Amino acid sequence: MGESQKGDLHLVALTKTFGAFTAVQPMDLTIPQGSFFALLGPSGCGKTTTLRMIAGLEAPSAGSIRIGEQDITATKAHQRNVNTVFQSYALFPHMTVLDNVMFGLKRRGDKDARRKALEALELVQLEGLGGRKPAQLSGGMQQRVALARALVNRPDVLLLDEPLGALDLKLRRQMQIELKRIQQEVGLTFIHVTHDQEEAMTMADTIAVMNQGVVEQIGDPATLYEQPRSTFVANFLGQSNLLRAKVVPGSPREGVALVRSHDADLEVAVDHLPQGASDVWLGVRPEKLRLGESGGPNRLRGTVRDVSFTGVAIQYIVRMPWGRELTVVQQNDGSARATLGEDVTVSWAAEHGFALDASQDADAGAMVEDDV
Amino acid sequence: MNGIMNWIRRHLVAFAALVVLAYLLVPNVIVAVFSFNDPEGKFNYNFNRFSTDGWTNPCGTAGICDAVGLSLRIGLTASLVATILGTMIAFALGRYRFRGRSGTNLLIFMPMATPEVVMGSSLLTLFLMMGLPTGPLAILIAHIMFCISFVVVAVKARVATLDPKLEEAAADLGATPFQTFLRVTLPLSAPGIAAGALLAFSLSFDDYIITNFNASPSSITFPMYVWGASARGVPVQVYVIGTVMFLIALTVVMVGQLISNRRNRQVA
Ligand SMILES: Nc1ncnc2c1ncn2[C@@H]1O[C@H](COP(=O)(O)OP(=O)(O)OP(=O)(O)O)[C@@H](O)[C@H]1O
Ligand SMILES: [Mg+2]
């Protein structure tokens, strides 16, 4: 990738308002040609609205959409070389599977429609089912027909609006792998909308995390996970322990800064610290924390309040003297376990922490597990 | 004891269905049987002697085939026009929000709710005021008017169940608005439109009261003919035509069922 290509999708200050409500705040995005891009965010954050604007099914209130150099903002849905896999599949119930898949090709007068459609059905492993009606297929099969129907047109951009939402967990995992394989095979640009962070991380090259109509952060899955830039991203992608801390001037070592949290001096990598910040949330992922002193120079003492065994790992809840509870996840690798009520030391390395501006809500984007 | 109760319970629905079916069909069977009668005297009320005279010579009574022809022409034209207009109204009401929508929704029911006598007489008044002579044209306009309501109701019920996402999907796949209508919207609403058209035709073909108000001495429709004849004695030909109409209706309904069955279970 690197330099700009002919088929890159550019969203420039793209905005959508419904009356007084702004569903999508001015959004600037560049999605490179051929990439698997995920749009991740909680329900109602404006993912579908963004996709519908790209597809031409919803007119933007402001801003523009370009594919390469071509501005498509003012064109109608049927004039755009963009196809959508709808969340509800939206297969034509009165047509056979094959007719569904040929629909787009026939509109463009493709002489080879039949052969291409059969090939597409083969790609999604539905060969031989072309004569059926959609109602005679299972949910997973319908989903694949919807995919084939969109793919077969070789669009500049393929939009997938939570296409796996209706599937059960097992089929979902299977389809995730399938989708990724197909994307690599045909090399089209995929924009995959989901509110499942695991799905986004396993599939996408690049993820944009959206919240209330705003893109909070864009990056590859590892960067988003290791260096979230907001408490929302830190909590929405996986779990985070956040400690209130003040930046202490001076540096103990090259590339490391000091922060003080509840009388403890803690190290954090300088490039994980927002510039010019004085009050911060210091974040560490549960699996980066160690019980005992093997984790690194950062140490806090607390009491084990809860131990839960999940098989591959053990999750501890450790309460700090000031009341905050930290979640620690240890691999079940045979090392000694802590018991309930034991006083323990929790440690971690400087490069495993990240600091976020303290003006944010520490619980933004956190899953309310009790409700699930 | 228990076994008998169970047997009755299990077959009650089938039994009730048979009774209702018989209740519905007996009049038609009588008409069919009496179409083979050779009545004694003018009235075809007692089965006298088997004869196929009525069937071999259906136009044998003066004016009957003219009346059937006129009814067919009015019925076909009225149902065609009413189906086109009614379908458009149904789509407008079902799909778009506009000023006066709820008012239109209500007014559409008026012809169904108004007593036919009232409507027939007021239409006659209107036509006379406008200088439109009674006769086939006046009848046709009146029929289109009340048929539209029924078409709208039938089509609107179907349109309400259509998923708007399907039309979006068609547009997304490159279909122009016209292609989308032709290939997605229309085929999916076809059952409703067909039901509306059949209903309109049978209502028009059957109508006596409104027709009678707006007819001229030379525009005698089939129901008017039968009504007029019944005072003087109903010819066998009326029974023949009645039976034919019933058989045609039966065929249409059965073909419709067959098509929709095939649509629903088509395995590769
Ligand atoms: N046609 C509309 N009129 C008014 N408000 C709308 C309309 N469409 C969407 N919205 C609002 O815009 C916001 C974003 O909606 P959108 O469908 O894009 O969310 P989403 O991120 O796709 O959510 P989900 O994950 O639940 O599908 C929501 O608050 C929704 O209520
Ligand atoms: Mg959505």
UniProtKB/TrEMBL annotation, chain A:
Pfam families: ABC_tran (PF00005), TOBE_2 (PF08402). The keyword Phosphoprotein does not apply. Its EC number is 7.6.2.11. The keyword Protease does not apply. It comes from the Bacteria. It catalyses: ATP + H2O + polyamine-[polyamine-binding protein]Side 1 = ADP + phosphate + polyamineSide 2 + [polyamine-binding protein]Side 1. Keywords: ATP-binding, Cell membrane, Membrane, Nucleotide-binding, Translocase, Transport. Residues 9-237 form the ABC transporter domain. GO terms for molecular function: ATP binding. Part of the ABC transporter complex PotABCD involved in spermidine/putrescine import. Responsible for energy coupling to the transport system. The complex is composed of two ATP-binding proteins (PotA), two transmembrane proteins (PotB and PotC) and a solute-binding protein (PotD). Belongs to the ABC transporter superfamily. Spermidine/putrescine importer (TC 3.A.1.11.1) family. This is Spermidine/putrescine import ATP-binding protein PotA. It comes from Intrasporangium calvum. The gene is potA.
UniProtKB/TrEMBL annotation, chain B:
Keywords: Cell membrane, Membrane, Transmembrane, Transmembrane helix, Transport. It is a multi-pass membrane protein. The chain crosses the membrane at residues 12-36, 74-94, 106-131, 137-159, 180-203, 236-259. The keyword RNA-binding does not apply. Residues 68-256 form the ABC transmembrane type-1 domain. Its main location: membrane. It is found in: Cell membrane. Pfam families: BPD_transp_1. InterPro entries: Bact_Polyamine_Transport, MetI-like, MetI-like_sf. PROSITE patterns: ABC_TM1. CDD domains: TM_PBP2. Belongs to the binding-protein-dependent transport system permease family. CysTW subfamily. This is ABC transporter permease. It comes from Intrasporangium calvum. The lineage of its organism: Bacteria, Bacillati, Actinomycetota, Actinomycetes, Micrococcales.
